[in-house]
Amino acid sequence: MATPVKVYGPPLSTAVSRVLACVLEKDVQFQLIPINMSKGEHKSSDFLKIQPFGQVPAFQDEDLSLFESRAICRYLCEKHPGKGNTKLYGTNPLVKASIDQWLEAEGQTFNPPSSILMFQLVFAPRMKIKQDQTLINKNEEKLAKVLEVYEKRLGESRFLAGDDFSLADLSHLPNAHYLVNATDKGELFTSKKNVGRWWAEITSRDSWKKVVEMQKQKN
């Protein structure tokens, strides 16, 4: 029996939840190892050996250690092409290129404004940090423009990289989940015909439902 991969970090972390969704999609056995960040466990010498930047997630597959959630997801798909969702990272170079293209769009264009909004609207109040309304307005405008591009794309294909759910779609789930469910900015997604349809479909996947349940258990 294969040794389960190890995923280090709290499920409430967006980057950790991205990896958890991937291992569930790929039907790869895994062990979730909690890291108490409030106690500084992510800065311990042992943890820094596998995640030199002291952030989550960290990931181990036997003797291999990785960090950065999108790289971990690609690795899982490349190592286990025949397990679970076999189309998650494409089955030929052309499809993979399309998935990589939209993964880059997520990381470079969607993630920055959505992360700022998520912090300002969800985490700043919990941390007793004053919200910056100018920053909120600026990044809401940026995110709206990104989603206009998505609206057009999703009018042409069922998912971002084509007709199959892929890492390109999965990678959007963590940040968007907070914005739709924990802020008043959900209409950025749900009010658009194609983006709303896409969002409803990707959040209904069993893998993501399981991640949300794990987040609730750790809340």
UniProtKB/TrEMBL annotation:
It is found in: Cytoplasm, Cytosol. It comes from the Eukaryota. Signal peptide: none annotated. Keywords: Cytoplasm, Detoxification, Transferase. GO terms for biological process: glutathione metabolic process; toxin catabolic process. One of its GO terms (molecular function) is glutathione binding. Residues 92-219 form the GST C-terminal domain. It is an enzyme of class 2 (transferase). Residues 3-84 form the GST N-terminal domain. It catalyses: RX + glutathione = an S-substituted glutathione + a halide anion + H(+). Its EC number is 2.5.1.18. InterPro entries: Glutathione-S-Trfase_C-like, Glutathione-S-Trfase_C_sf, Glutathione_S-Trfase, Glutathione_S-Trfase_N, GST_C, GST_Phi_C, Thioredoxin-like_sf. GO terms for cellular component: cytosol. Belongs to the GST superfamily. Phi family. This is glutathione transferase.
